[in-house]
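Archive entry: two folds, one per protein. Generate the first.
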Amino acid sequence: MEYSVVVQSISIISLMIIIGAILSKSFKFSEDTRKVFISLILNVGMPCIILSSIFKVDMNQNTFKMIMIVFCLSIVINVTGIGIGWLFARLFFPKSNKRRELALLAGLGNTSFIGIPLCAVLLGPKGALYAAIFDAGVDVTIWTIGVLMLQKDKSYKIHTFKAMLNVPIIAAVLGLTMSYFQYKPPGLVIDLVDQLAAIAAPLAMFYIGILVMSLQLTKIKNDVSQVWLPILIKLVVLPLIVSFFLTFLILDLTIVQTLLIQSMMPTLTLASILFAKYAADENMGATTTVFSILLSLITIPLLIYLMNHFLVAI
């Protein structure tokens, strides 16, 4: 992977975030505004990126095999991150009642908002497809292990499983089914999907920029003493561990690149929403999300440079 392409992509992402921060001054960032952004990104942009990638990739038995490998490795990586976060939280904050939040923030990454668009730019349609499958593994981890950790009664309900049936996952299943039966939609549909896919990255970065400007200073002061832990694990420790173990696996280069890039992603953007749903510390989720995103603009190109030279060539 050309390092200059990585730097250029991260620079574009940074500029989009800055634009979002500037735009935040022109309107009030209310709950309704947040819902509009999230709905457009998750229900329009992301599904179209997934479908666009599937339509451009030649599907065969080997490709489906690779998809299952990415999905399984995604769950393994996510669970590993959560486990490391839990162990570190017990070690550094033995009396804290926020170990659940710290563990989930350390293991679950922003593999949809940033990961899928970034893989699409750096790796092309196949990379975007694998990134979407990796994100499906993140969703499964969130609504199984994540929910089990956050719920007080430690049980699953019907709405928990319904939450796994989000639009990006439905798009992935639908697209893969169409591809498996070798059905290609009309050109008009493909062109529409391609154009709608282009809105995902800008909207996601604008949302992050607005989120940065909406974070209150008092929230940052309350959480800064603990959020360094999940940020360090998510942005540095976990990617290095994933890189080390991938050197022992014989995988397609695009899969290796996708797994590494997705493992480098900052903390889950929707962490604060997830925590609020289960009466956890949503302020900590928002603070960690913002700081990890800003720091990832430095750590992602730096880690890619180091891995190319010392661990696994990507």
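Generate the second and append.
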Amino acid sequence: MRIWGLAATLGLAAFAFLLGQVVGLAALTAVKSFDPLRAATDGTALAVATLAADLVQTITLILAARLTGSGAVAYFSLLIPGRRNVAIALAALAAAIVFGDVLTVALGRDTVPAFQLDMFRSAQSEGTLVWLSLSIVLVAPACEELLFRGFLFRGLVREPRDGLPGILIIALLWSLLHIQYDWLGVTLVFVIGVMFGYVRLYAGSTLLVILLHMLLNLESVGETFFVLGWL
């Protein structure tokens, strides 16, 4: 399989991401007016921007993968994982969620950040709660993993010796996208990113990582609904 080189991988990934962000912002301004200073708590804005940006980003990455002469399924390693790998990965995810919540409470912090509660309240008041939930639970996890543990992983982890540095670099880049959280939240995102990287390395399946990411976000949304008294 022909694989994009390191520089090309990073460049194409950055181009796909930035193009998606530009289209997402354009779609958002076409749909509604919003205050950039309150964007992090505007649930409708997040849903619209995420759906548009991730669609464009993913299409761009698929085209980039196909330019190598490989199919998207092979390039992104969208393979069905074995049952044993699924069981181990699910157990690791459950342990990570429990550890994160226990540590958060032990440090005297709220398990659901205030901005996240406000974001869901705003979406509920504007009638876009379903779209926000779908974008967080389904769309964002799939598209983020195609970028990070799919496209970037393929270009950065070429040999066994590339595993650890590649996983750490990708987890760091992924955590930097979550600067809406405080230092603890970003640190936990990084740790989970490392776990996702090792699942991708040993299971050889980005589909499994997408599933884990979806379940992680589903748990987060469920916890948010619980705190808001919607469950």
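Annotation attached to the second fold: The longest helix spans residues 129-156. Residues 6-227 form one domain.
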